[in-house]
Queue: 3 jobs
Job 1
Amino acid sequence: MNSSVEQPEVVQLPAEEPVVAPARNRRAAAQRVREARDRLTSTSGTRPAFDRELLRQYAQTRQSASYVVMLLVFTTGVLFGVIVQPVFAIAWTVGTLLVHGLIVHNCTKFLNEPASPGTTRKWRVRFILLDLVYGLCWTTILVHPAGYDLVSSTFMMFMLLLIVAVSSMLASSLPIAAFAATAPVAAAIALNFIMRGTLDAYILALLAIAAEGYFALLAHRLHSTTLATLEARAEKDALIGELEQAKAISDEARHRAESANVAKSRFLAQMSHELRTPLNAILGFSEVMKSEIFGAHAVPAYKDYSADIHNSGVHLLNLINEILDLSRIEAGRYELNEEAISLVHIVADCHHLLKLRASSRGITIHEIFEKGMPRVWGDERAIRQVVLNLLSNAIKFTPQGGEIWLKAGWTASGGQYLSVKDNGSGIAEDEIPIVLASFGQGSNSIKSAEQGAGLGLPIAKSLIDMHGGTFTLKSKLRIGTEVLITLPPERVMSALAPMSEEAPALQPDIMGFEQASSDVRRRRRSPIMNAGTGL
């Protein structure tokens, strides 16, 4: 008895160990969720949490396109060296390349610098000023007087569109920087065209301003698209964080459930052993006292008391067996001992066992079985337990003088079915899920004098599910209840076809008689042949 008292303490110890890691993962996931939500909350138009990411994309774009910009500056310098003074073109090319190199250097420095909220605004202002200087460099060469002919005007418009387009694409993550790089160029060229005083020049000036406005709008659209992409990514990170948090919570709950399940299994195993040991003595001695094997009781009431003790012990033993069966089924450790069985024979046998109980209450049981039904492949003990549970419930909740119908036959798909129908009090429709749950009882069973533990129907349904069949409960108040179980056609065993050829007759010679005698002796010694031939 001391060992049984100390056992629960040993069971509960492992339950706390696997919870530490899931709890740590859950806290880390919660921290990531808070960070993602902080990035999504802002009071400004461009979310401050995304400013660093936008600047990073700007710096990476300028770095990746540095060689393209250098080629554009060098080509422009060569072309203007042909049109204007070569010395001025060389000086402009060197100065513009230096400004461009300074921008690339700052971009590299920004990318290598650790992130910090205080420096984001400083780098933003620095990039805008560098792009403004870069745009002024282009202004100095595009507004250089090189004549007012058609070729010069066309070249200026082409260069304007090229510079504005390239600068807008490179600085789309920072629209203010793109405007600072392109606005001086567009304004200077438009002013140059206006100063010519001709209609064609006015039209070109208007086109220059329109081009600047178009590419500024395009840069703003690209910036909005980039910002929307960052927001979607932040929302995705938040969702992933929430999923990880939910997974950590579920893992923690699963570990606790597994620990509780282990503790429950150990408790049931221990208690079943502790309860069965005294129950054997109670059932044995009460049976002896009830049967008066060693003599009649001095007081006749003692015989009734012994019978009550024996019946209570049997009821308790059945309850323990049902709880253990349900625990094994829920744990997935219930193994079916399958063999060829006859469903009709099992139902008839269960009817015979419970016929006396039904007769004592004036209940009539009708049997409606189809003839010639083959055997099915299943666990005889499990099917017998299902039938006994269903028939016992039908007898228990059928009033005096009621009727019960037992039906067995073929299903439409080729399987076999069993139906147990009574005209008892019935079950309310909303209580059907309750009675099919473990330890669930309907209102009628609670009011009944013969209350059960609420395990019969759940165990029966689980056993039929393990056979691949279906369990259907139909009931109406004050009309009756019908339980229909089916077994799939895969479990129906088809009979073998009879042999088409008869065995050859024995020849009446000595050699044939000796050969036949040896065959008979060999078949008698072989257990396989005995099982097949019935010898």
Job 2
Amino acid sequence: MKPLLLGIFTLFFIATNKAQVAPDLSTYKSLNEKVNAWRTYCNELLTETHEYRRLISEAKKGLTLIPDDSIAKKAMFNLFAGCAYENTKQFDSAVFFLNRAATLSRKVNKTSYEITALSRLNYVYGYLRNAVMVNNTVKRMSEIGGQSASVTDRQLAMDAVARYYGNINDYEKAIEYSIIATDLYKEALKTDTLITSTINLGYDYSNLANLFNQLGQYSKAIDYLNQARDIIGDQALTGNEETLYLYFEQSFLGLDKPDSAKVYYKLMYDGMTKRDTLYAMLSTANFLYGNYFLNKNKIDSAYYYSLKSRALAIKSEDVSVLTRSSELMGNIYYKQGRYKEAITELKSILGTSFEFYKDSYAGIHKTISDCYAQQKIWDSAYAHYKIYSEVTDTLMHAAANKNFADAEAKYQNKEKQQEITNKNLLLSVAKKEQLWLVSGIGLLALSAVLLFINFRNKKKLAVLLQEKNNTLEQLNTRLDEANQSKAKLFSIISHDLRSPISQVYQFLKLQQLNPDALSAEQKNSLTEKIQTATGSLLETMEDLLIWSKTQMSAFSINIQEVEIIPVIQSCQNLLQLNSEAKNISYKNDLLLDTTAKTDSYYLQTIVRNLLQNAIKASPQNGTINIATVQEPNSITISILNQGSAYTQLQYEQFINDTDSTKSFNGLGLHLVHELSQKTGIQIAYVTPTETSTKVNIIIPA
């Protein structure tokens, strides 16, 4: 398996097995010799994970050695620094140095450097959830893959794009670009004299097979693995390819052929006699068998392989492998009814990063919730189920956005195809007209008359066509607006309705599991919570109806005298469950008998959404201050909460960002903005301190 980072670096950096000792530059005569020695030293540091922080300072020292006109060498040391910052998770610095490396590389056509910098930037931007910059880096790598004169550079670019799509679990696109990269590598073997080994082609086939495994197309995966085995041969487990046998095992287990998988399982263990660094791979091999038997409900066999997987994971010192084996062990404990042990095992890995494995993170919380429920520890069961529900909701929201994007792409492709058909039709008409002109060249007088008639008809047709085009453009504009409103409505429904429905379901489930164990007081308390959650659901549905109404041309408001205190108290009651979950207390400083002329329903919606955001932003056991202030020309309701400060500038940037409705809290703020605009209410954020936020709801008198 080619590593994500070093697989590219080895094309232009020379890796060595020397100890990582800084060279004595005084022993080198020329500046070029000093730079090359320092480059080799930095490359050695790059191969050792514990040396990344040291590499940062050494790469910067390398930059001081290089003259200003050595742009390629500057790009190289910027690349060293950027990768070191990335691996120490100092992402702002990583972005700075990797961007410099990409820019400098492009100036001197060092495409391999640029591809490496772009692929690492793509990972960093993905981690930071900067979708715009992710798309930009992928677009640039795709341009290199399609335009570069070098077959090798095109292959590297397409391979990097394929890895990007594999990292975000878009396996169809990953396969598409991997096949392109593999074909380019075959071409490079024929045309590039520097590439003579076919072993990387075997790696490409093996990695392609892994993508098909992820899609559950195990037979197709085995086809590619057989091709990989023919090329890699006896270098499996002795060269750099450590996963060929592992992918075979995964494929055969997917096809429910454990005996065939066992052949490759034994081959991996035989390889341990030649290498002592395969603990992570052997842990994964046992994990695959343990997971297979767990799915078959053969718990004893699953437990046997799980123990072996964890023992090898500990030897490997690989955090991700150890996390995966512990997750398997926790699931087995749950199946065995060992609920306390399952909770201890699974909680021990919750501190691990699950940035790219949100579904696994959600599953762990679901299992912990079930364990607590089996022990009738309902508060803890609900707390973990809530996390599971929120993460699942986020994943469903992301999947819905992807489906919308795919549908839009398909629509655009059909539109382009129709455009090509229309152009071909116009070309056909033009050819026929040309034929008529040639045939009538001998009859000049008649041709002149025909041309005049033809010109007049075309003019009428052009006018008519222009009118039709204008009408069609107006219809397309309206259709686009309707589609955007529909997509936004679906997004709101998937976000805002699912959470309260999940709460109601969980309360009812808890009541159903053991109704006799609950006292009358507990039943009454649970009934009140169900009523509160149901009220929240009804309130959310009302929000949706209000928002839908704001999108219609017939939108109208009902201005009347509204008492302020009942509105605030109603919102606090609706959000009581949210407040109790975080033990939030309220400090109210409200003027008695205060009224304002506005629409009571829309004011309540605005206050409720802003109060809900204050609860989410507040820390556990926090306090929220609510006050009213009477001004000569207005009445102000202020909500002050603890937590990270949120400024007016952030609010204005947020509501002006058309993509912000995809975030977890974006829909509520957009609804607040639309209702305040239509009712004349002003929303103003102020930041009293760096650890608090105050929002003022200013109602004109």
Job 3
Amino acid sequence: MTVTIITCIGLLCSIALAVASILRGRATQAPVSAGAIVWGAIFMLMQAFVAVWSGIGLVQDDALSAVIANVVLTACAGLSFNRYALKQRLETRQEDGTGFGVSHPFAVTVVLLLIATALTVLALEIPSNHNLTWMYPLCLLLEYFLVGGVLAGVFFLFQRRGAAAAVVTFALFFIGLAEYFVILFKSMPISPGDLSALSTAAAVAGSGYTYMLSAYCLYGIAFAALAMLLLQAAGRLRPARAQRTRRGLVINLLVGLALIGGVAGHATLIDYYHTLGIQIYTWRPLESYYRQGFLPTFISGAQTINPPKPDGYDVDEAEDLLEEYAAAYDSAEAGNEDRAAAEAQFGEEKPTVIAIMNETFSDLSIYQMLHADYTGPEYFKSMSDCLARGSLFVSAYGGGTANTEFEFLTGNSMANLGSGVYPYTIYNLADVGNLAQQFKDLGYDTLAMHPNHATNWNRENVYEDFGFDKFLAIEDFAGAEWLRNIVTDRATYDEILEQLETNSSPQFIFDVTMQNHSGYTTNLIPQDKQLNLSIDGMSDAEVNEYVSLIQESDRALAEFIGKLRQLDRKVVVVFFGDHQPYFPSRFNDLWFTDEDEAVHQERLWQTDYIIWANYDVAGNSQTSEVDNLSVNFLGSQLMEVIGAPLSTYQKALLSLREALPAINTTGFQDSTMRWYLSNQSEADGNTSLQAAIDARNDYATMQYYELFYDGKSIYTKRKQSAANETDPNLDPGTTKIM
């Protein structure tokens, strides 16, 4: 309420200044120009936005930031309405050499651009990065020159008009604001790969998120406004129309192109990672952005979207490496009677295989039971007759669902592709081996389902490329049970049961659930479904909503498994979470101190999995033997334990696990189960670590071969909303991929 009152007072002052300026202009026969009115109105609109946003309770109640922002915005509006008088004063100072200490308007323009650049950098960084003293000085300087180059380039390209450059300033401030919200909702920064998934981001943007502006956002508005005011002033110093010459216009154009071209060349021709040492620490990506600045780090990430080809990569050698690892697996399993029995059983029975990737399903009791005696999903943890179970190490945190399913379905690791990359939206996956195509080749019907938009993460095209016969999306769940305005896990399980009842053929069903998607401040959990924890004596609404959702997921899983136990057909279920929610990092840093950094970080990048069957699988005791692994190995592990035929690549991956039990973008394990961060490249005589590093390098080579072969067709050419067509022979609402 305080911010609203202050902003309304500020807005009234701006309006009063506008009226006074207009009346004074009429009285002096010097009316306020249309341009001045537009500029002043822009600052008033910024004030009006803050007033409305705070009025609905979406601005932090901080009086100091509100006063500063409104003083700045009111001053900017007032000076804009009186910019003719301002220009006259500046010209007077230039003539007598006072004030700026220079007599040439171009020198004043340069000074104004330099100051505006600094303010624009602050507008970009401050909303999310509150302590710029933590930034590396050279990175801050680099960001200053990147912003300054673009700002000045646009300024001169548009013939020294301040409006064009001001648009750049506002755009950068808006990016800074977006960065703030992405960090707030995901505890992750904006990455270059996010640009390839804007439709997905837009689809979930309103799903339970509260867009609360912080005090630092108001400071960012103030910095942006000041920068825009100075750019306006710089634009007023250009020569009058009658004084402009063709030579001057050409010079401005060339200077603008040179500046923008210089920035573009710097960002594309210089290797930010190897030459400048700017990199994204995958285990602490936020720290990378905070210490190196948004633009340098973003550019470095963008440069890595082109997948790095392993040193000395050769197609023939990659094929030989695959064969060597696969042969090692065959040799090790040659006398394994349990595996032989499972293979024979699978070939005869052809069980249906159901893979459930449960949205944000994780056991937060690993964080010292949340200091609230929280024990996690009870039924899930109590299942004692699984074929295998354990911790699942993933390459996503707080978001990035599609990367977990990519790793599961293909057996490839994001560790070999880098942070901020989304293969579904970036790469050509048409010929990439995957579980759906593998089961299809075995005579299975293949079905994917996701109770949200088919365009999310480009799934409509990827699932077609992967060989799924059908894809059921949000329109196919009309009338289904909802929770928080999202289709429940239970509704997707009911659809699976219906598929089993109506289709007696062996099936591979891949269910990507939606129920537990962030954010967790909707307050839409019914009273009888709420779980209320007292964390160190305090209630946290966000945590309570999340654990309540996990409790509902657990109940739905119990019902589903109970029905499968009674089903008169053989079914295998692999169930796993895609990533943790975005908030446990604060518990991790607060409650786990003075521990190994790799262990500390991996706690955030893990979920859990089970592989379960409703029949006795030959060669398996089904006593829930624990096997902790990373999700890129889960598909191969599934195929092995149920006796399904293995591809050459899957055999190679299973053989690889002897030296490299788990790997994700954060780190990797050696054979002693010790974790190392992903930047570990020297073994220093540690034989198990050296074996893991060698295996990691071999994995990178084999994966590059599996994904890109010779690197000539890396990027996707498929557009979203192009794959799905309605087949009149199917039931209404069923989507078939043609």
